[in-house]
Amino acid sequence: MIRVLLADDEAMVRAGVRAILGSSGETEVVAEAGDGREAVELARAHRPDVALLDIRMPRLDGLTAAEEIVRTVPGTAVAMLTTFSEGAYVTRALGGGATGFLLKSGDPYELIAGVRAVAAGAAFLSPKVARYVIDEGLGGGRLTREAQARARVAALSPREREVLGLVGAGLSNPEIAARLHLVEGTVKAYVSAVLDRLGVRNRVQAAIVAYEAGLVEP
After folding, report:
1. How many beta carbons lie within 10 A of that of residue 133, not counting itself?
2. What gap in Å lies between CA 109 and CA 6, rounded to an integer?
3. Which one, out of 66, 94, 153, 177, has a CA that is 20 to 30 A from the CA of 58?
4. Vertex 85 angle, CA 168 and 165, to 5°
């Protein structure tokens, strides 16, 4: 079972999300928080697989809570779940270490798939968010970013580029291992090397480079 911490200041929203996740048969909400500070405290106490956080919450906003959870509870993956998809939120969330960004207006299956993906160590962006990241980017013109991404990817070995493309497609380490007929430990080493050589903090940022370099179709 995937153990989830759910944080949202609206009880009805938490109930709806809890019901959707419960319907999958593979996810258990082990703790619920009504504000960001409580979310951080519960993450430290329960060590869930995934912390699913709203952005606008009292006491401590979800973005700050996400950064604190990433820093102090390293075994917990963080995904944002919000109605707000403005660029500033997306940029800060991904820059702060979140590996998922989901919209409350999305399909329930998208929510389940997103939680499953980040729990497995992969990255997951709502299609609308992914479109924004690809079209608007995290700074600079699109053609410039594409050229820069291709230059960065050119420094990778053929196998590293292959792994990067699969990371960009949202595959987890076990899925990449199965696709490339490698052991999972080898894939983990490749992913770490790719992140290091690209100079990015996490798989989401690596996926953005993969998209911009043309290694995976948007």
Report:
1. 23
2. 17
3. 94
4. 5
Q: Name the nearest CA neighbour of 205 among 195, 215, 218.
A: 195
pLDDT by residue (tens digit) across 133-186?
A: 666 655 445 546 677 788 788 878 889 999 999 998 888 899 999 999 999 999
| Mean pLDDT, the chain, integer | 87
Rounded-to-integer distance, Cα 18 and Cα 30, Å:
10
d(CA 96, CA 184): 26
Report residue 57 as tokens: 């919450």
Hey, what amino acid is at 203? R
Helix (H) or strand (E) holding 78: strand 77-82
| Whole-angstrom distance, CA of residue 12 vs CA of residue 2 | 22
The whole-model pTM stands at: 0.69
